[in-house]
Amino acid sequence: MEAARPESMPMITPSEVIEHVYCPRFTYFMNCLNIPQHEELRYKVLKGRTLHEHRERENTSYLRKKIHCTGREISVYLASPALRVRGKVDEVLFFDDGSAGPLDYKYSEYNDYTFKTHKVQSVLYAMLIREIYRKPVHHGFICYTRGGSKVSEIVYSEGDFRNTKGILDEIFEIITSGYYPKRTSSTSRCADCCYKNICV
Ligand code: SF4
Fold first, then answer.
1. Which of 92, 101, 118, 140 has its CA 20 to 30 Å from the CA of residue 159?
2. What residues are paired with 71 via a beta bridge?
3. Residue ranges in the chain whose pLDDT is less than 50
4. Ligand 1: which atom is nearest the Cα of residue 26?
5. What is the pLDDT of residues 164-188, one digit of tens each?
6. In whole angstroms, how large is the CA radius of gyration of the chain?
7. How far is ligand 1, taken at its centre, from the CA of residue 28, in Å?
8. SS3 assignment, position 93
9. Residue 141, beta-bridge partner list
10. Cβ-based neighbours of 137, under 8 Å, separated by 6 or more
11. Containing H/E element for 77?
């Protein structure tokens, strides 16, 4: 495992990672130039983010039984100086094969876009759980509570962990060196971006 960075190294949240995936220049404008986003844009970028204040948790005991879950911890704050990531996961589940994994509730409807976004978050929680609990993490779950509840299982591959680690390295490379990253590959995102007037 990579050695922990110095104490002064900032830690980022899964939301910041998603913003970086949306456009790497968000990392530069927010973390290097300290220019905050407008909240309405934040909402747009993170339209699938967890809305804890409106969350409607359903009774998922049937799910836990089905997936051989033997225990859980609720609302767990996870932080890793080695990964340089911190965040709060809704549940850490423990399975009868000795592994563990995250369960996250989302007050949104399931669709492909939000699933991809939430998967990045879920992989980050999986990496945090793996490191902090020292247990293997093979799969996790996202429970969509709006528009008819749906539970999505995510089976993590080593490729998922590698790719996410690569995204983290890219973010910290920008933060520490202050280089101006490439634009998003989806230029349609620029039309209503709050940074469009300063982004060249
Ligand atoms: S204008 Fe486009 S490239 Fe620039 S920060 Fe916004 S989304 Fe990214």
1. 92
2. 94
3. 1-6, 48-56
4. 5
5. 999 999 999 999 999 999 999 898 9
6. 17
7. 11
8. strand
9. 103, 153
10. 99, 100, 101, 126, 127, 129, 130, 156
11. strand 69-80
